[in-house]
Amino acid sequence: MSVQEQLNDLVNRFYDDYFSYNPTEGRYAGFHRYLGKIPDFSYENIMGFLKRLRFYELEAERLGEENLSLQDSADLAQLTQAVKYERFGLLQLRWWAEDPMAYEFHLDVSTYLKRNYDTITVRAQHTADHLKAIPHFLDQQKFNLQSPLPKINLTTTIEMYKGYRDFYREDVLQYFSEIEEDSILLDLEQSVIRATKALDIFIKYMEEILLPESTDTFAIGRFNYIDMLRHGERVEIELDKLLRIGEEDLSRNSLMFEELAQEFMPGKSVQEVMAEVAKDHPQADSLISDTEEMLEAIRDFIIEKDLVTIPSEVRINVEETPSFYRWAFAMCDTPGPYEKSATESFYYVTNVLDEWPDKKKEEWLTKFDYATLDGVSVHEAYPGHYVHYLHTLSAPSKVSKLAGAYSFWEGWAHYSEEMMLDEGWHEGEARYRLAQLSEALLRDCRFICSIKMHTQKMTVEEAKDFLMENALMAETPAQKEAERGTFDPGYLNYTLGKLMILKLREDWKAQEGDVFSVKRFHDTLLSFGAPPVPLVRQLMLTDDDGKIL
């Protein structure tokens, strides 16, 4: 075989193996042969996959000595990174033994409800097959987890598992209730009963056995943090230097926010300013239609200013958030890059519930003030996640369609919020810049708290106070953000990715000179999929000096 054929063979063998080991990821990628299946996470199967990963790594190292094209070299680098990151998770983070939350998304059956990839009867059968596997899956989780576990991680997992249990009981059967085939409906009902009973037993085990033994320890530690950045984002910067970069960005954004707030409402506190901004919001009955109109206006501005190619005329569907996703404020839900049937994408916006009292409804809707909703829509849809997804469909290889970096996905969407205003969107309207800076302050605080919580012994309480002071958050959301940092140390990647993209843009502009254009930069950047930004630098810059920030 030629070198390129060897690379393609390695890529295909790795992903076939990976998706067989973790069919949930194969299903999310759009491969229908994994529908109705969940992983076998027995200790033996996990260790067997770990051994095979080492062989893939050795094969990749050998191919790295061959003469490859620039794109093939990038694919090999991304594949190698994916393999190393999997090994890092299994060997160093030991998620299978120490992170109960790592199992939760395999319980999700919403794919079968929300995506019309086949008849409702077929989707009901896939749901039943999935639910039948859950009792054994929970037995494997019980065997693997090693007490003591981090308390916040465990309590969050208990809340999530209760949500899945209630969703199975209340939503799944209701959704499929109109199926005419009695045998399939009966099979589904029995599968729901067995799955919910197994969840009840496992929740009781977590509450009565694991929770009393849990601890406040959660940090992954300095060396694991360094490896998380190295294997996940190809970022190798001394942590003290990285922390200073985050603190400098926080100071810069704080100063801009305070100055603009005083211009907008002289003599008022920043809390009073943001309360004033929050007053201008949609009503419950117009939230979806207002969001649709907002998306069209944003999309038209992007086209008018020639900021980035929007590869499809197909619009993202704006809908109220389904019951099983109501934990989210708003979210973009796209199909996998290999999905050929259910290709629609959704932008979910979480509206009020009819049974809420009027005061609670008003409090909730203030979170959707037009300035904030505009920034969220830029992040989630145009030109953020949805446009990024559309570009990924034409990425040059299987690896570039399937692999990706947290810092690219979220960095691009976060970068888009700032870039749109810089390019003239809502020019002269201070409330929109205030909303954007408010989000930037939150992401800066995540960046700083992540590093300090996992490498410098910052407590959850200290992180909460830091968020309240520097991101101007109320106590309850600040507490939630601090708690998220304990089990998602990668949430620094919003700011990290944005800063790396800004630095790449500056360097590429210097390289291109008079022929530079914002649109060509964005189109070129998105054409590669979602590789780590340091790898994109090698693809875009003729002379990369390695200075990513």
Give an overview of the whole structure.
This protein folds into two domains: 3-218, no CATH class; 225-317 and 352-495, no CATH class. Helix content is 66%, strand content 2%. The chain has helices spanning 3-21, 23-29, 43-63, 70-93, 95-98, 110-114, 120-132, 134-144, 151-175, 182-213, 222-233, 239-264, 270-278, 287-305, 358-365, 370-380, 385-392, 398-402, 406-422, 430-455, 460-470, 475-487, 493-512, 518-526, 533-540; strands at residues 317-320, 330-333, 346-349. It is globular, with a radius of gyration of 24 Å. The protein is mainly α and 549 residues long. The two termini are 40 Å apart. A three-stranded mixed sheet has the order 1-3-2, with helices on one face.
Give me the secondary-structure topology:
Elements: H1 3-21, H2 23-29, H3 43-63, H4 70-93, H5 95-98, H6 110-114, H7 120-132, H8 134-144, H9 151-175, H10 182-213, H11 222-233, H12 239-264, H13 270-278, H14 287-305, E1 317-320, E2 330-333, E3 346-349, H15 358-365, H16 370-380, H17 385-392, H18 398-402, H19 406-422, H20 430-455, H21 460-470, H22 475-487, H23 493-512, H24 518-526, H25 533-540
Parallel strand pairs: 1-3
Antiparallel strand pairs: 2-3
Helix pairs in contact: 1-2, 1-3, 3-4, 4-11, 7-10, 8-10, 9-10, 12-20, 14-16, 16-19, 16-20, 19-20, 19-23, 20-21, 20-22, 20-23, 21-22, 23-25
